[in-house]
Amino acid sequence: MTDFTSLPDLAVRSFGGSVLAASDESFEEKENLINPWKPQFKPETFGAKGQEYDGWETARRRPDENGELGHDWAIVRLGLPGMIHGIVIDTAWFKGNFPPYASVEACAVPGYPSVAELAGADWTEIVPQSPLKGDAEHPFEVAVERRFTHVRLNMFPDGGIARLRVHGEVVPDPALLTGLTVDLAALENGARVTGCSNMFYSRPDNMLAPGLARNQAEGWETARRREPGNEWAIVELAAPGVVKLAEIDTTNLKFNAPAAASLSGIDARSASLDDEAAWSALLERTRLQPDCRHRFRLDDSPEVTHVRVDIYPCGGIARLRLLGDLTPAGEQALTARWQELA
């Protein structure tokens, strides 16, 4: 699997993605395409429509009166609009009923368009028609540097696809963030984790996900630390800003929450992330409780581009929220990024 899979899945259901429409879903529902879990399979589980699959499966196509076979498609609204770096088309468990070819298109439509409005959108091919194998993950790098809001998966001519993963960078609309107090660490606002000491059980980007964590797997959790020291993660904020309120949420972590945590910040435009002396304390080492939302007001915080959360000595965090204001430089950076990828 290529490096782009380390980026967030912009289409996954748990990040707000939705499969709006499909040409056919006779055997299995289109919504399965963006389920967050890995495709599952139980042999000899036959329903009224045949063997049950954890994916999207269409009926067998037959030529029409003109001899045309056509193809099936599904339209997905990205939960996190942004620049797509790569696509994964997964045909897991589809061994005799997978499509031999697939392609992907993308478009950018403002607001909340209907399926009918999307039909007339300006679609750009980001993955050309490519061969597929059965029961396999197929990664495709995307070189189009534009912001997209929707993708259309085409399969030729029919069959089953278990999952569609759309990995990329979130590019938020600056009109929704400028002039407001916002979560500078939210994945949906363009923040992301750029480094961490340990992600044995789950990735630290999970801390920045929308909504509340429903279980331990939906947060960041490290292995049990046996050596001296502590675990940490570095968050690149949505844009330069001033953090005024921090929330460290250990919900669902009843026996593996950290004993304590601290926050520090840095302006990476003028200092290196490796320069320990350049980091400023935002929240001194503070005791945490398990299965608890902790909120801390941060007074007199400096303008920062990155925040490091240190947990002592190890454990997990369900969600990290850093509420604050964009600085003028932050607003300019967001606007410039938006215009560059429009």
From TrEMBL:
Gene3D superfamilies: Galactose-binding domain-like. Pathway: Nitrogen metabolism; (S)-allantoin degradation; (S)-ureidoglycolate from allantoate (aminidohydrolase route): step 1/1. Keywords: Hydrolase, Purine metabolism. It catalyses: allantoate + H2O = (S)-ureidoglycolate + urea. Residues 16-170, 190-325 form the Allantoicase domain. This is Probable allantoicase. GO terms for biological process: allantoin catabolic process; purine nucleobase metabolic process. GO terms for molecular function: allantoicase activity. Belongs to the allantoicase family. The keyword Hydrolase applies. SUPFAM superfamilies: Galactose-binding domain-like. NCBIfam families: allantoicase. InterPro entries: Allantoicase, Allantoicase_dom, Galactose-bd-like_sf. Its EC number is 3.5.3.4. The lineage of its organism: Bacteria, Bacillati, Actinomycetota, Actinomycetes, Streptosporangiales.
